[in-house]
């Protein structure tokens, strides 16, 4: 996984969008342009205490003069959103990485279906702007308890018009909870689906598309996956040197590699950012990240959360 | 007529170079920031730089990296794709290459193991910097091959002091 440049950007605008969501607009204090984002990109925000959090860019990906991101205050969360809401006010300097993209639009798609819930709308908003400009066929489904809990609703309505379908689960005006089976009943070859929201939404989309050809459902999730079964000990072997390292049940491969002096970059340490990816030469990996796709899983592992069965040989 | 010198280096033309830019970064991966003056501390590095602070990507490695230099002539060669290793020229701006000092008219390859003056400070050339995939990833640009053998010079600081762009650079 690639290293990303970290930039000190100025918060030039902060807007409360309701439902605890704050939109931040960031600019470089001295340079007119930032590293170009793609539709679906996210950035790492380095909090003052060494923690790192990922946020999708929700602005126009064609505009490299600023980055826009939206952060929902999660009082019960791990503290990242609280830090952002407390510290990132207009005039503040935010330490932000250049964008990465794990949530790419499929260039071969002939129809794009965007499915968002709540604050999960952010990467899809950037995608919608891009697809509309490109004249690509797109429709969007946006779910929330009601319009008051749906950030960016006015922007999406203006952008998409009738191509936006809202699903309010608790408002009398809505058509109820998002119905994946109904919406995704049509499965022509060129349709690709992009989902961002809580795990339940992703599960319903996966279930509705179970019979589709693989690679046509794309998901972004910044909520770590629940561990797949209890963690057991395993062994790592470094291919170039033959060195063997024991990874006890209570420790990560990442921490064992670091202790052995093997430098491994990392950021989120919950399997969502991709910074600590290392190539795998042999062995059975129990993947617990949300970054690697099937092809990626065949050749690499995220050392922060994924584990092995028996011995895993790292191609280092 | 004087006879031919037995030592070819005695005939090498004298050079006198100039310091063009000073850049530091507060920690690994952080964007470089340009300074109008900098304080060099003997045996440590540039005040405020990641290697001075022990927060660089290679801080835990034994190599000398108190201050790093690169030739502006190398950046110009990349910009005209010379030698033509890439399909197109590669732009590498002084704030991007992650060396501390961008210099002009200084044959860095001659300074391995030698002492030289930058303004009021004295540096000692350690080894020619090896290009890294890390920089290539950081900038999303092909740089590894084009920088091969000319990625700059890592130096130790023998005599500290304050340097500024425009300072003269001379061999000792």
Please provide a written account of the structure.
The complex is a heterodimer of chains A (316) and B (172). Chain A is built from 7 helices and 16 strands. Chain A has 316 residues and is an alpha/beta fold. Chain A folds into 3 domains: 6-97, Elongation Factor Tu (Ef-tu), domain 3 (Beta Barrel); 111-220, Nucleotide-binding domain of ferredoxin-NADP reductase (FNR) module (Rossmann fold, 3-Layer(aba) Sandwich); 234-314, Ubiquitin-like (UB roll). Chain A has a 6-stranded antiparallel sheet with strand order 4-3-6-1-2-5, with helices on one face. Chain A is globular. The mean pLDDT of chain A is 89. Chain B is mainly beta and 172 residues long. Chain B has a single domain (14-171), classed as Beta Barrel (M1 Pyruvate Kinase, Domain 3). In chain B, strands 1-6-5-9-8-7-11 form a 7-stranded mixed barrel. Chain B has a 3-stranded antiparallel sheet with strand order 4-3-10, with no helix packed on it. The longest helix of chain B has 8 residues, at 72-79. Chain B is globular, with a radius of gyration of 16 Å.
Topology:
The complex is a heterodimer of chains A (316) and B (172).
Chain A: E1 6-18, E2 21-27, E3 42-46, E4 52-56, E5 67-72, H1 80-87, E6 93-97, E7 111-117, H2 121-134, E8 138-144, H3 153-160, E9 164-168, H4 180-183, E10 191-196, H5 199-208, E11 217-220, E12 234-238, E13 244-247, H6 253-259, E14 277-286, H7 294-297, E15 300-302, E16 307-314
Parallel strand pairs in A: 7-8, 7-10, 8-9, 10-11, 12-16
Antiparallel strand pairs in A: 1-2, 1-6, 2-5, 3-4, 3-6, 12-13, 14-15, 14-16
Chain B: E1 17-24, E2 33-35, E3 38-41, E4 45-46, E5 67-71, H1 72-79, E6 101-104, E7 115-118, E8 121-128, H2 133-139, E9 153-159, E10 161-163, E11 168-171
